[in-house]
Specification:
Blueprint (H helix, E strand, L loop, with lengths): L1 H6 L10 H20 L10 H9 L10 H13 L4 E2 L2 E2 L1 H35 L8 H20 L2 H6 L6 H20 L3 H15 L9 H11 L1 H24 L21 E5 L1 H30 L3 H5 L2 H8 L7 H18 L4 E5 L10 H24 L10 H19 L18 H18 L5 H20 L12 H20 L3 H15 L4 H8 L12 H8 L15 H25 L8 E4 L2 E4 H17 L4 E3 L5 E3 L1
Antiparallel strand pairs: 1-2, 3-4, 5-6, 7-8
Helix pairs in contact: 2-5, 2-6, 3-4, 4-5, 5-6, 5-8, 8-9, 8-10, 9-21, 10-11, 11-18, 11-19, 11-20, 11-21, 12-15, 12-16, 12-20, 15-16, 16-17, 16-19, 17-19, 18-19, 19-20, 20-21, 24-25
């Protein structure tokens, strides 16, 4: 009976065994029962009142707004609306119950992670030993997982936050969920697990932005597990980081008379401009999107045709049948993709010929004549068109007769773009500016260094150069425009300053999916992370449509929304220098808090799994875990009797 309960699992090939799920449910149920009977009956201290109002009325609490938490709190307050306290409705109790549920689930995931990981570590440490009993080891790991998770669940901070209206238990749930999925992917990589991890990570960022630090172990795991996948993520991350840096600098106020700075010169916004034909611009954008999508689809058709899959299997799938019908076009895919994108470039270039003059608001006004931007955009699209053709035509080497013409054409278009950017005049600092000019040395070195890494990494993959060229074209163009004073940062969503990075985001994802070896995994992982982050859109919607009583910062406005997602009311992080007394003091404070939360005995247990190795003394092998366990027991004994030993005035240890 016990063996079946713990180790029997009819599902073959599953990662989490019955014993892992048993640890999950044991820790979850025990912690939830304790939380339930210690719930606060109504509003308590801290942010309880504000958060309860926001959750009960589907509102917007303090930054960063906590959209997913608020939605869940609203559902719980409606589900348990019949609960009263002293004859009055008490939505605070319902939301406190939600905190307990999230905390209990976090404890359960912790137990599952400890049980499974400890079992794997024990099995790997004792591999090849005949006297090793897996069932006994798993039972010990189950006890360790449940015990460790309950220590975490009933630590002072966790227990206190699990019984009131607060957001931190949901943070703990997201954190442990990410760690569990990361470990699952590390032991058994699968794209679906990676996509789910990315979505949970993005969703968690909307609740607690410090969760961004949880990306570090995931990055390390990807690096250690699959260096090729790590390289492709880095290739996608470089343009994202460069674009974010450009938007950050562009958001600075321009140099003005009497200002101290540091600031840089910008052109004044144009009040009346000759707006290019929107019909031609939109049609050109549609052509570019069609080119990228057709390249992706036709490339997939070509791969299916080259694999020579069994026709009976193809007939059983409507999708495969459709791909087979498109197989005839796959031979001309390079010309189809390049032709569509090239036509889009022509439309964008000629859109400046059909203009009409209008007055525009200062937030939407360009800093240069619109024809400058359309000419630069058209040349970038032309580079993209030749790169799509070259990437599709690539077979083995760049100097193949099918590939080399595309590469030469893309290089020529990039050179023309460079000359066009050089012809743009620079903005000058206004008279009376009293501050130092903005130092462009570090941003320039950062750009050149990042592009160098981009091309070096791209040179290691088959179609990498065709990915690097359009990325370099866009990043160089926006940086030069920024340097010359013709670019703004991220502004109101109704302006084009907002939409160009959004369009560029999807182009990066599309290029990665088409040209990188692990492009499908990287592109969809990025999309799922952005899907999770997109829950931020909840805030302006409910702020405008419902105008709830808790409407912090009015995020229906652009200024209020930025204030929320950037945590405008909080001080920015200022990391301490490692080689200072301040850092040592902060480190001591951390370990002191660790001891207070978990006690010294429980906190030290966390180091025991790292002693699952052995060393040889002459002819005898000694396991480090035995030595560590003995030292741990001695430490616990001395700690349990703090007055047993004291230091006398002479500095010697004496018995009391």
């Amino acid at each position: 009976m016990i063996k079946k309960l713990f180790w029997g699992d009819p599902r073959q090939g599953v990662f989490f065994r019955r014993i892992d799920w048993n640890a999950f449910w044991t820790a979850t149920v025990i912690s939830f029962l304790v939380y339930f009977f210690t719930l606060g009956p109504s509003v308590t201290l801290e942010d309880s009142g504000e958060l309860a109002v926001a959750g009960d009325h589907l509102g917007v609490p303090h930054p960063p707004g906590y959209p997913i938490w608020t939605i869940c709190a609203y559902l719980f307050s409606r589900l348990f609306s019949w609960v009263t306290f002293r004859g009055q409705p008490t939505p605070a109790w319902s939301i406190s119950l939600m905190s307990g549920v999230f905390a209990a689930l976090a404890a359960g995931l912790t137990a599952m992670l400890i049980t499974r990981s400890a079992s794997d570590m024990m099995r790997d440490a004792h591999e090849g030993e005949e006297d090793f009993q897996q069932s006994e080891s798993d039972l010990l790991c189950w006890a360790g997982g449940v015990g460790g998770s309950l220590v975490f669940a009933f630590s002072p901070v966790m227990w206190s936050q699990a019984t009131i209206v607060e957001v931190y238990t949901l943070n703990a749930l997201f954190l442990m969920w990410i760690f569990l999925l990361t470990y699952r992917w590390m032991r058994c990589p699968a794209d679906k697990i990676l996509w789910l991890t990315a979505f949970v990570f993005g969703l968690g960022l909307t609740n607690y932005q410090v969760l961004l630090l949880a990306a570090l172990p995931l990055v390390v795991m990807i690096f250690l597990r699959d260096i090729g996948l790590f390289r492709d993520f880095l290739l996608v991350g470089i343009p994202f980081l460069l674009t974010a840096h450009v938007l950050q600098i562009g958001s600075f106020l321009p140099a003005a008379p009497g200002a101290n700075g540091p600031a840089y010169a910008k052109f004044m916004p144009l009040s009346r401009v000759a707006v290019p034909s929107m019909a031609l611009l939109v049609t050109g954008g549609v052509c570019v999107a069609f080119a990228l999508i057709s390249a992706l689809v036709l490339d997939a058709c070509r791969k299916v045709k080259e694999r020579g899959a069994d026709r009976e299997k193809q007939k059983s799938s409507a999708c495969a049948t459709c791909l087979e019908k498109l197989g005839g076009l796959s031979q001309k895919g390079a010309w189809i993709a390049a032709g569509a994108a090239g036509f889009g470039a022509i439309l964008v270039l000629f859109s400046a010929a059909a203009t009409h003059e209008v007055a525009v608001a200062a937030t939407d006004a360009p800093l240069l004549a619109p024809g400058v931007y359309t000419s630069v955009a058209g040349l970038i699209i032309l580079v993209l068109a030749f790169c799509l053709g070259g990437a599709y035509a690539y077979k083995e080497r760049l100097n193949d007769k099918e590939t080399l013409p595309w590469l030469i054409a893309a290089g020529a278009a990039l050179l023309i773009l460079f000359f066009r950017l050089s012809a743009i005049s620079d903005a000058v600092l206004p008279q009376g500016y009293m501050g130092a000019p903005f130092d462009w040395a570090l941003p320039t070195v950062g750009l050149l260094g990042a592009l160098s890494v981009l091309f070096l990494l791209s040179a290691t993959i088959p179609r990498g150069v065709f990915y690097a060229l359009p990325v370099a074209a866009v990043q160089l163009a926006v940086f030069v425009l920024l340097r010359k004073g013709g670019m703004n940062g991220l502004t109101h969503p109704t302006s084009w300053w907002f939409w160009w990075p959004v369009i560029w985001n999807f182009l990066i994802i599309g290029l990665a999916g088409f040209m990188l070896p692990n492009g499908r995994s990287v592109a969809l992982t990025t999309l799922f992370a952005e899907l999770g982050i997109s829950f931020y859109i909840y805030m302006p919607i409910v702020s405008d449509l419902r105008n709830p009583p808790m409407n912090w910062g009015y995020p229906r406005t652009w200024e209020g929304f930025k204030h929320a997602i950037t945590r405008g009311q909080y001080e920015k992080l200022a990391p301490s220098d490692v080689f200072t007394k301040k850092f040592l003091f902060q480190l001591g404070t951390y370990f002191t808090d660790l001891r207070v939360q978990f006690t010294l005995i429980a906190a030290t247990l966390g180091f025991l799994p790292f002693t699952l190795w052995s060393f040889r003394v002459r002819t005898r092998r000694i396991r480090a875990v035995y030595v560590a366990t003995g030292l741990y027991l001695v430490t616990c004994f001395l700690w349990s009797f703090p007055n047993l030993w004291v230091v006398n005035r002479c500095g010697a240890w004496t018995n009391c």
